[in-house]
Amino acid sequence: MKIAILLSVFNGELYLGKQVKSILEQKDVKLDLFIRDDGSTDGSRELVESIAATDPRVHLIIGHNVGYKRSFLELVNEPSMSDYDYFAFADQDDLWKMNKLAVLQERIVTLEEKNIHLPIMVYSNGKVFSNQGEGRRLYQRPRIISSFIDASFRPLYGMSFLINLPLRNILVETEASNFDLWGHDGCLDCNNKITT
User: Fold this and answer.
1) What is the DSSP string of 134-190?
2) Do 41 and 79 touch, CB atoms closer than 8 A?
């Protein structure tokens, strides 16, 4: 099983190195990191190029500025994505715990045992930090999201979830004009749309 991590960056040089490090240090999973530079004017692209030169799991995609929603959509639509089983989304300023993907992968694999073709999304909690230190948890109490309708009323943060290939294929098969792709503040609904 292999996970594609999709990261869109725009002028994120300040945080990007730590985020990439936290992704590449994930335990007990096979992953590739696809970073789309969305027209950065700082040193983001050069930083990713230097990391990619030393780690074959890192792939840089250079684009012009289309905004984070369209940038993530372009990553999801990359032809090579059909070679992956699962997809995680990362913001340029996140930090991931070392077991984040292993925990999510274990959960999604368990759910797939019932039906390998079922579109599935699992999510984790996280913490929001500020310059003053640790802040609040993303989700203040445990939540059960039983449907995409439920998710529409209880938004999930993109950097917290993992989707499987069938759900990715729904995103790809749905014309870009039919939905907005989320950044870190959106969720899926029952119409196979992304809402923010």
Assistant:
1) EEEESSSS-----SHHHHHHS---GGGEEEEHHHHHHHHHS-GGG-PPPSSS-EE-T
2) no
Q: Are 6 and 87 in contact (CB under 8 A)?
A: yes
CA angle 194, 182, 155 (to 5 degrees): 70
Mean pLDDT of the chain: 80
pLDDT at 135: 62
Contacts of 179 (CB under 8 A, 6+ apart): 171, 192, 193, 194, 195
Give CA 83 to chain center in angstroms: 16
The pLDDT tens digits for 95-147 are: 888 999 999 999 999 999 989 999 998 877 665 555 666 665 555 555 555 55
CA distance 148 to 78: 25
Place of tokens 């913490």: 127
Helix or strand run (H / E) with residue 67: none
Tens digit of each residue's pLDDT (9 = 90 or more) over 164-173: 999 999 888 8
CA distance 94 to 173: 29
Token pair for residue 90?
Answer: 């990362």
Cα 87 to Cα 97: distance, rounded to the nearest angstrom: 17
